[in-house]
C-alpha cells in the first residue's frame, strides 16, 4: 500500500487539507507547519498521485513533442531540454518522429492522440501555412523550429538571418573573402536555409563586399555526408574557398572531413563555422566554431507557452499568436582560431 495524505497528516499532526495545501504549494500555510508536513512527507516517502491531480483538473498530464529527426543530435538535445522543462510542470512528454514528412506532420497536428494529450509542441518541416490555418480545433499547439509560418500559433524560432550575419562577419573579420555557404535549398523561401543564406549575403553587403554566388552549394539533406559531398563538389570545380559557413554543424563536420582528406588544413587553409552547437562539434580533432542557439531557453519557452495555452483553454481566455525569439551566440573554437605555436 502506498503512503496516503492521511498517513502524512497523522505523522505531522495536521489535517489532510493542510497536507494537501502543502503538496499543492498553496501560499496560506505557515512556514512552521510547512516544515513539519515536509518532514513527514520525507520520512514516509510520500509521492503525490499526479494522474489523479491532472484528472481532477480535466487533464491527462501528457504532452506530445513531434520532431523531424531522432538521429539528428540537435533535435535530440532539444528533446531532452523539453522533457526537463516539462517535468517542472509535472508534465510527461510523448515523443513522436515525423521524418519531416508533410503527411506525418498533418497526422500529428490534426488530431492524432488528441484525446490523450493536453497539448502539442511541433517542429514542422513539410507543413504549409495553409495546413496550419485549416487545422481543426484540438489541443493547444506551439510551433518549434526555424521555418517561417506567420500562422495562428505561438512559434519559438531564433533570428536565423541575424545569427548567420554574425557567423559570416566573424569570418570576414578574420580576413576571409571566399566564404562558401553549404546547405542551400531549392524549396520555399520560408525554409531556414534561405534565411541563413540571406544572412550570408547581408554580412558581405554590410562589409561593403560582393559575395561570390558560385560558392553557394545546395545539399540534398543536412547530414555529415551532405557536407562532405558539397565540399568535394566545390574542390572538384576548382572553387576553393578560404572559409565555410555551413547550414548546420553536421554539414560543417562533413565538410571538414573532406578538407582533411584533400590535404587542406582547418583553419589555416579553410576556416569553418557551423550552426547548432551539437556536442559532437566540441570534441573533434579540430573543435568546431558554431552559432549556439540557447536550447534550454528554446525548450523552456515552448513548454511555458504551451502550459499557458492549456490554462487559457480551461478558462476561455483568448490569447493571440506570438513569435518568440530565443537567444543565441557565436562560439569561437579551433576551426576558426588559428593556433599559435
Automatic annotation (TrEMBL):
Domain HTH lacI-type: 3-57
Record InterPro entries: HTH_LacI, LacI/GalR-like_sensor, Lambda_DNA-bd_dom_sf, Peripla_BP_I
GO molecular function: DNA-binding transcription factor activity; transcription cis-regulatory region binding
Organism expressing this protein natively: Streptomyces mangrovisoli
Statement: the UniProt record of this protein carries the keyword Transcription: yes
Keywords recorded for this protein, A-Z: DNA-binding, Transcription, Transcription regulation
Pfam families named in the record: LacI, Peripla_BP_3
Protein name per the record: LacI family transcriptional regulator
